[in-house]
Amino acid sequence: MTKLASIDIAVIDFEACDLGAETWPIEAGWIRWCDLEPRSLLIRPHSSFQRDLWSMASQRIHGVGLAALDRDGADARFVFAALTKELGDFCVVSDNPAVDSAWLGRLCRACDKPPPFAIVDLDEAIFRIGDALSIRPHVAVETFRKAIIASDQPPHRAGPDAARLMKALRAIASSA
After folding, report:
1. What are 7-34's pLDDT values in tens digits?
2. Which CATH architecture has domain 4-174?
3. Domain limits of the chain?
4. I need a surface site. Which of 9, 93, 126, 131 has the fewest CB within 10 A?
């Protein structure tokens, strides 16, 4: 097994109806180290999600409306099952683990299931990659930082946002 094949990192991102304690996820996006492209699923509002928490300001940011979620969104149980199957064996990281964990928790509560994994900070991925490839921690952090600065602004869609972060993580491996 090559050193790169041993990296078990996945990046996750959620978009939501708004920010706040009772808000709910509208899209989950993820990409594993071994993937070429991200995967994302719109989430059809579950009956336990309060539609009156919908924010037009958030809609303007992510560009997804309630009608599109009702029409094109997947059932919360389907999204939960996909996340569990695809990410259950990975170290799942996020650029905002507290918020993304809250939205994962909201999805899990809608499905009456416990979270299938913990979401940890990107630092964990940076250090795992550096360790696997014998890259000094400060070099790994600086390489990631430069790659993020050089990247495009996030589009505020879950799949592309996760892919942007993974591209910066992969820059660490490219520097080895």
Report:
1. 899 999 999 999 888 899 999 999 999 9
2. 2-Layer Sandwich (3.30)
3. 4-174
4. 131
